[in-house]
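FORM 12-B: Structure-to-Sequence Request
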């Protein structure tokens, strides 16, 4: 039940962000390999790490690249949303095996949206 609630919250927030950005959805698509090469490369690496159960390491990499501005600001939300949506789709058992929690995912998503200026930072 808690998992369903969190998934609905993330989906609602995503629709709000998409609307704010005048877009129908917020997902990362590897469509033009030259236009967003750094973003596409990061996306592929994140998906490989998720498939290997390296969720913590993948999240750390995402934040490192965002903080170092290694990817276009416009791609940050797409990458982050896609990443956290996939993380939240994992079973509780798999997340526990990977030493990661839904609460960590929600906190990470909130931090990314704050970094992008979509939510106010609280101290």
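FORM 12-B RESPONSE
SEQUENCE OUT:
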């Amino acid at each position: 039940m808690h998992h369903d609630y969190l998934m609905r919250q993330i989906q609602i927030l995503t629709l709000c962000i998409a609307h704010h950005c005048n877009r129908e959805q917020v997902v990362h698509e590897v469509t033009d390999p030259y236009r967003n090469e750094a973003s596409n490369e990061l996306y592929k690496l994140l998906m490989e790490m998720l498939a290997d159960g390296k969720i913590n390491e993948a999240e750390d990499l995402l934040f490192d690249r965002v903080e170092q501005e290694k990817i276009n600001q416009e791609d940050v939300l797409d990458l982050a949303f896609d990443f956290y949506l996939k993380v939240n789709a994992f079973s509780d058992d798999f997340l526990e095996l990977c030493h990661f929690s839904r609460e960590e995912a929600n906190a990470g998503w909130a931090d990314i949206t704050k970094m992008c200026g979509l939510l106010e930072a609280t101290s």
